[in-house]
Amino acid sequence: MKRFQLPVVLLAIFLLIQCTKDYPPLNPSDNIKLNQVGYYPESVKEFVLTDDSAGNFRIVNFQREIVFEGALIDRGVWDASGEKVMMGVFTELKTPGYYQIEIENIGVSHGFEIKQKVYEGALRAAIKSYYFQRASMPIEEAYAGIYKRAEGHPDSACTYHPSSGRKEGSLNSPGGWYDAGDYGKYVVNAALSTGQMLDLLELYPDAVPDEVLNLPESGNQQSDLWDELLYELNWIRTMQDSDGGVYHKLTAKGFSGFIMPEDYDLERFIIGKGTAATLDFAAVMAQAGRLSTSADPLWSAEAIIAAEKAWQWALKNKNLPFTNPEDVSTGQYDDDIFSDDFYWAAAELYLATGQKKYLRYLERNPEIYQHQLTNSWKFFVRNNGFHSLLKNRNKLPEDMAEYLLTGHLQLADSILAEIDKNPYRIALDRFEWGSNSDILNQAMLLCVAHSLSGEEKYLDGAERINDYIFGKNATGYCFLTGFGSKRVMSPHHRPSGADEIIEPIPGFIVGGPNKDRQDQSNVQYSSGYPARSYEDQEASFASNEVCINWNAPAVFVLAYLEQNRK
Ligand code: 9MR
Question: Which ligand 1 atom sits nearest the alpha carbon of residue 181?
Answer without folding.
Answer: 18
